[in-house]
Amino acid sequence: MTAPLPPRRFQLCTIEPITEIVNGSLGVTGTLVLSRVEESYQLHFSPDERTLTQHITAIDNSPSKIPDGKWKINKKFRVDCGKLSTLQLHQEPLSITISRTDRSGVRSFTFGSSEFISMTELVEQLVINGIAVPAPPEQKNDKYLLYFYRRCHRNIYSYTPPHIQLSVTSNNDLEAFWAALHQFFTSLIIHLDTCDSLPKDPSYPLNIAAEACHERVLSQIREYSANISKIPVVENEIFNEKGQINNFEVIKKSIYQNGCPSKLLTYLLPFVIGVFKPDSTFESRAELMKELKTEFYQLYSQCTSLKASQIENHKKFLNAFRVIKHDVLRTDRQLPAFSKSTAFGLEILTRLLKTYCIFNPPIGYLQGMNDIFVPFILTYLPEWTPEGVPIIPDDIYSLYISSYILSLPKNHANNETNNEINNDIKSNIDEQINKKFLCGDVPPIIKDDEQLNAKIEAILPMIFWCFDAMLRNINHLCLLGDVTSRCKLIAKEIHSILMQVSPIAAIWMRRNSLDSLIWLYSDFVLLFKRSFQNSGKNGLWRVWLQLNCLSQPEKSLTYFVAAIIIQCFRQLTTLPGVQITTMMEAFPKILQTIESDDVANTILWLYEKAPPKEKIENNYHMKNEENEKPVKRSGFKYFETKWTGPCETVQNS
């Protein structure tokens, strides 16, 4: 009876000659062979002790069973590729370093420039057969690293398209080769993903490959950021003699890059978010502010004039007012303005939220609006006593009601105030006390302090209209009008952006069910208010001003989140799990590790590499890209002001 033939060995590539490196010196010279035996892949090194023919024959006829020998220097080895850990390439000198998972120590080999192409063939075979994937550097100098798939076997990829090939030149430039390898690997993975041919095995190192490819994206962003022209921080000479802003686009770019100095925020904020036009004059802003005050208190008077029976019979108002009462009591209780049940910040927030319900009935109140209002309140009323009473010095109050309407005092940066304004302080206060706001009496917020109450009532309209202006400027009303579908659409747009700039990262996220970004929905609604509550360089206003200063602010939230994902992607791949609960717990901590400057520069880079598909001319005509049909509008025209014009809101389809 004939004995069964031994398993046949198929050589995939060979590097010969190749010389082992021992403590910086040259060791034995031999041949490095990658081969396939039945269902496994093996890497074989054999010292060159015979003639070439004898040598190759010995390799071909070597037993398929791998001996459990030691990993000894200058000795032959034959190891299953599933037991290999990494393969690293070096430029000077041209060399390879191999490590194992089951043995300590490494084996290093050098080869001449004549074998550079043979080396590229080895790497190509490792990648195209799914044996190894590009890996991120473990150390600064580990630029060219491959990571082996522990369970590699024959036909990992059911089909590898012949039109996707690795283009290599023979100039021995390892950097150029590595760039070509990444391009080749990216095209291969995209094709396999499209055909649903990527391994379903959770241990397949797609996350490592994604990290490696994504690191090259971050490198491009760092290079782009280094070439961005630096713009000085906004300080003086903001207005001309008519009260118009000088070089508003330059100021916006400065605010985008540097943030806005806290002493200037209250004055520049209405211009940045669109309450005032940059070319408006002193007189036009003063007239507009009178109208805004009148319209605000007309709205609020409608709130106070609603009887309990009317509210009970109006289901939307009844539900909204009930939720407002509940949410206001839970708002930022760690802050003095809201810490006590008797704190006046609670009453101010309640008035603003109820007024917005009257102003925009189709949206009314959504949970989270209380969080968005708080930064505006604290911007214009920054100081509070421990009992929750706002502190508004006369000079600061006068600046609020005069300077942001007229102009920022030229010497304000030096904490000096305009003498003419100071002389008008008392008359301004007296005017507010005696005024009935053209709509009857307004219930006082603070009953036993007429002057303080007048100051608060003079400031509330600006808080309200700034809140509404920002929601319009960044198209947030669209999201609030249909939260679930809009969040899904934003997540889809973000995935599309990532597929353009870092496709393997996007594929990894989708295969792990992270592309829906459900764990970020609350941040979408709250505009990351709870995630960036701290003040300073990485604070909330830095984020919100960035959203509003972009050339297409209606797309800013999408690009902002995409930039965040790009900056923190590597941390996502190292989490112990990707369940929604894990992500919701881990992601806020991850956000604290990224820099606003990095996010800002990434957004600008994304605008160039993956520009918005279309400029939205009307916030309420934005297309739903899932079905390419315009979002339906309710046809309900709610409160119309001279400032906003006729307004409609979106309708859930």
From TrEMBL:
SMART domains: TBC. GO terms for molecular function: GTPase activator activity. It holds the Pfam family RabGAP-TBC. Transmembrane segments: none annotated. InterPro entries: Rab-GAP-TBC_dom, Rab-GAP_TBC_sf. Residues 259-548 form the Rab-GAP TBC domain. This is Rab-GAP TBC domain-containing protein. It comes from Tritrichomonas foetus. The lineage of its organism: Eukaryota, Metamonada, Parabasalia, Tritrichomonadida, Tritrichomonadidae.
